[in-house]
Amino acid sequence: RKEVEQDPGPFNVPEGATVAFNCTYSNSASQSFFWYRQDCRKEPKLLMSVYSSGNEDGRFTAQLNRASQYISLLIRDSKLSDSATYLCVVRWRSGGAGGTSYGKLTFGQGTILTVHP
Amino acid sequence: EADIYQTPRYLVIGTGKKITLECSQTMGHDKMYWYQQDPGMELHLIHYSYGVNSTEKGDLSSESTVSRIRTEHFPLTLESARPSHTSQYLCASSAFGAGSGYEQYFGPGTRLTVT
User: Which residues contact A96 (CB under 8 A, 6 or more apart)?
Assistant: First the structure.
C-alpha cells in the first residue's frame, strides 16, 4: 500500500465549477500536511499547508481528518489557470531519540485537474 | 520566486558516461533534497542532506551519489549512466525547524535522457 494515495483523475471541469480532491495516508504518526501544485513539466510549488482545524485561502479550502487519515482540497469557482496536477504531501516524525523531525516529505502521485472554458 | 537553480535543464547523453547534475540555492537553507520523477508519476526522494558533510539515501534506491561540501551546493553524480536513469531529477531545499513550515522549494529540474 502506498504511503500517500490520491485519485489520479483526470478531473475535467468547466470554468466556475467546484471540485474536490481527496487523499489518504497510511502512517498515523503523520505530523504535517500540504497541498502542492505542479504545472506540466514544471517543478512543484507549495499551494497551502493543511491545519487540523481546516483552513481557507481564497478559493481554496483544505480539510484534515486525522481519525480517518484523510485530507481534502476544495477549489471553488475554478479558473482556467487552476489546470495543473495537485500533489498531496505528508511529513511524519522520523529520526533519532525523541522523534526528531528532519522535514522529509512524502508525495502522492497527484490528481490531474483540467479546467475548460 | 525560489532562489534554487539546477543545471543543465536538459541533458541527452550516451550510456556509460559520467554525469554530474548541479544544484545551488542562495537562501541559506540547511536541508537539501534530490527527487526523481518519471512522467505522470510521483516524486521519489533519492538523497537528502541536513547540512555540510551530511548526506543520506532517500526512500528510493538510486545508483547516484551526492556530496555536500558547501551549504549552497548539492551536486548529484552518476558514474556510469544507463537508459534506466532516464528521468527528471528535481532538487529542493528547506529551512531547518518548525518555524519554517517545512516548505520545500524546488529547482526547475534536469530532464535526463540516456541513450
Answer: none
Q: What's the mean pLDDT when you consider all of chain B? A: 91
Strands B110-114 and B4-7, bridge-based pairing: unpaired
pLDDT over 70 for what percent of chain B?
Answer: 93
Q: What angle do CA B92, B94, B95 make, to 5 degrees?
A: 160
Cell, residue A114? 483540467
A14 with A116: CB under 8 angstroms?
yes
Which amino acid type is present at position B39? Answer: P
Judge whether A26 is closer than 8 Å to chain B, CB to CB: no
Nearest CB among B50, B58, B106 relative to A44 is that of B106
Q: Do A109 and B108 touch (CB under 8 A)?
A: no
pLDDT, tens digit, for every residue of B21-72?
A: 999 999 999 999 999 999 888 899 999 998 999 999 988 888 999 999 999 9
Segment B96-110 shows an average pLDDT of: 77
Main-chain phi, psi angles of B85, to 5 degrees: -85, -5
**Contact assignment for A49 to B42 by CB distance below 8 Å:** no
Average pLDDT, integer, range A98-115: 77
Residues from chain A contacting residue B31 (CB–CB below 8 Å): 102-103
| Cell triple for A86 | 495537485
